[in-house]
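Model it.
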Amino acid sequence: MKLYYSWNQFGLDVGKLAKKLASKKKKFDGVWGPARGGLPIAVCLSHELGLPFLARPKSKKTLIVDDIADTGATLFKYAKAGYFIATIFYHRQSKYVPKIWLREKKNQWVVFPWERT
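Modeled.
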């Protein structure tokens, strides 16, 4: 079964993530997200939070974001290194639980708007 995640829902969720991140009172030096899923979120959050968008993590104060922590393989090395990580979706099978996540992925395949042709 597929879950079609819309641009509208993405916009709402970016706002929710921004509020949760702002409430943490943590000082980030910028926002970075891995290419594809993390990139749209990183760009939008950089605007929402007034932080620079970074081409790569600058320091341990860089906020790392991604669309989903599914297996956790992409995020695990950053988590191990002590980065603060936020995602929109989280799946319980992930090697890593993000510090902030909004939605739990169940047994459906999430189709993000940037994946549609």
